[in-house]
């Protein structure tokens, strides 16, 4: 039984389904971009802008889902299945409520929201349609994220992967039908893409919910969604709110960067959207390793195996660095040809090609952040990661990006240079923290105080 549990939480067994899931999400994004590009480059710009807006708002419910995910893995590692089950139920319920609160204003006021972020006037009509429909379905994203997170942190990374496969197939198929009016469907263009997005997400929620009900040792029933444990909820918030702020810093910095790029013009906005799609290819496998590492380390930490958790982080980091570097090099060599698949606008292609070399520097810095940052999160050291994000992203990713990109007139190149600097500063910062072994020292201190204290330390979070 222990051997099966150990294999279930091995890095490879956790990582490969996450990679397949992320790869399918990448294909979904690429297919979306490719299919939307057949409508117009303006439609691509709207989808790119809206994606950043939605990602920023997602941090509000991901605070609960992410914090709960880490605690679920820790509790399973310390053999506290009932606590893990209760935490999972609360995370789904609370995420759904937050998602609903987000959905209402997006559905009712899409134009006002787009105007607030200085979207160019020529994109406004498309933006109102897309933000209203996809934004109105953000409650589905909230529930889907909470369900996937809970299922994944039980060690079952295959379930969300299979769900992603089905969702991708349905979404791409409906995109084709709605954009071009095939199979008797109306030719709705970008409106059709938005409707396709909501339908595929709704189906994914239904499948994940069925999976979630049987994810723990004791079956979850619909009546169990009344469960609420104030002590456990406080633990979720304690570990989750710094995660939420960390995610918010990154997403809002990206949203501000998109606002800067919108000032440069629709061509620059389209180029950045295409580059986002290509860059996803680079860090996909590295990110899957980082997510798997977080689950593994949280499980080991909950079981009290802190030295093993510390060593495993470096193995995953070196593998991830090698992978993203090779992927970035491949993209550098063939990226120009790939851009021509998405658009025939020579200005957009030239702008994208100029950024491919900079991407070689960007991706290793991202991997360092993803790997070691997630390792710190897994042992509860979420506040330190939060403070590094607040400091670096505020000063470099947002303020310096504006100075170099807009004020000094360096454009996208200046913005990318600041993004690279931000990644490396944060990466070296969290690496230094990890090497200090604060969580190991704390665990050893608790063990030395006696068996009673040691047993109570399992799954604890690290105070800063």
Automatic annotation (TrEMBL):
Spell out the Low complexity composition-biased ranges. 448-464
The answer to whether UniProt assigns keyword Ribosomal protein to this entry is no
Query: Can you say where in the cell this protein is located?
Result: Cell membrane
How does this protein sit in the membrane? Multi-pass membrane protein
Keywords, comma-separated and alphabetical: Cell membrane, Membrane, Transmembrane, Transmembrane helix, Transport
Domain of life, per UniProt, equals Bacteria
User: What CDD domains is this protein classified in?
Assistant: MATE_like_8 (cd13134)
Residue span of region Disordered: 442-464
* Keyword field contains Cell membrane: yes
Q: Mark the transmembrane ranges.
A: 12-31, 51-74, 86-109, 129-147, 159-179, 199-216, 236-261, 281-304, 316-334
Q: Which GO terms describe its cellular component?
A: plasma membrane
Say where the protein is mainly found. membrane
Q: Which terms does the record give in the GO molecular function aspect?
A: antiporter activity; xenobiotic transmembrane transporter activity
* Alphabetized PANTHER family for the sequence: MULTIDRUG AND TOXIN EFFLUX PROTEIN MATE FAMILY, NA+ DRIVEN MULTIDRUG EFFLUX PUMP
Name it.
Putative efflux protein, MATE family
């Amino acid at each position: 039984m222990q051997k099966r549990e150990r294999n279930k939480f091995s890095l490879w067994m956790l990582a490969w389904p996450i990679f397949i899931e992320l790869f399918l999400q990448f294909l979904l994004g690429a297919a979306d971009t490719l299919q939307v590009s057949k409508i117009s480059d303006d439609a691509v710009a709207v989808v790119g802008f809206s994606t950043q807006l939605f990602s920023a708002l997602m941090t509000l419910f991901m605070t609960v889902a992410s914090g709960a995910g880490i605690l679920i893995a820790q509790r399973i590692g310390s053999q506290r299945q009932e606590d893990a089950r209760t935490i999972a139920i609360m995370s789904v319920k609370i995420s759904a409520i937050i998602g609903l609160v987000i959905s209402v204003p997006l559905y009712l006021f899409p134009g006002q929201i787009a105007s607030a972020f200085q979207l160019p006037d020529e994109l406004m009509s498309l933006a109102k349609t897309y933000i209203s429909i996809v934004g109105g379905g953000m409650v589905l994203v909230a529930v889907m994220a909470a369900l996937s997170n809970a299922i994944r942190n039980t060690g079952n990374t295959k379930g969300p992967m299979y769900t992603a496969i089905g969702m991708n197939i349905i979404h791409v198929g409906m995109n084709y039908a709605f954009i071009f009016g095939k199979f008797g469907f109306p030719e709705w263009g970008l409106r059709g893409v938005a409707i396709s997005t909501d339908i595929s997400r709704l189906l994914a929620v239904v499948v994940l919910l069925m999976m979630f009900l049987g994810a723990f040792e004791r079956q979850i029933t619909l009546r169990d969604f009344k469960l609420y444990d104030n002590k456990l909820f406080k633990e979720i918030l304690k570990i989750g709110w710094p995660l939420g702020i960390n995610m918010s810093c990154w997403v809002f910095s990206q949203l501000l960067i998109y606002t800067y790029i919108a000032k440069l013009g629709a061509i620059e906005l389209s180029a950045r959207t295409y580059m986002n799609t290509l860059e996803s290819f680079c860090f996909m496998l590295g990110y899957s390793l980082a997510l798997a590492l977080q689950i593994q380390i949280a499980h080991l930490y909950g079981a009290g195996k802190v030295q093993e958790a510390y060593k495993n982080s470096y193995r995953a980091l070196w593998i991830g660095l090698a992978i993203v570097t090779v992927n970035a090099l491949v993209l550098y060599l063939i990226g120009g040809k790939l851009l021509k698949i998405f658009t025939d606008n020579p200005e957009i292609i030239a702008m994208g090609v100029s950024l491919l070399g900079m991407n070689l520097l960007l991706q290793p810095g991202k991997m360092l952040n993803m790997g070691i940052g997630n390792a710190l999160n897994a042992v509860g050291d979420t506040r330190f990661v939060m403070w590094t994000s607040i400091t670096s992203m505020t000063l470099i990713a947002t303020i310096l990006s504006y100075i170099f990109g807009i004020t000094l007139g360096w454009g996208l190149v200046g913005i990318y240079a600041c993004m690279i600097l931000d990644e490396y500063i944060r990466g070296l910062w969290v690496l230094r923290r990890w090497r200090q072994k604060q969580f190991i020292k704390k665990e050893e201190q608790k063990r030395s105080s006696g068996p009673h204290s040691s047993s109570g330390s399992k799954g604890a979070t690290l105070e800063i």
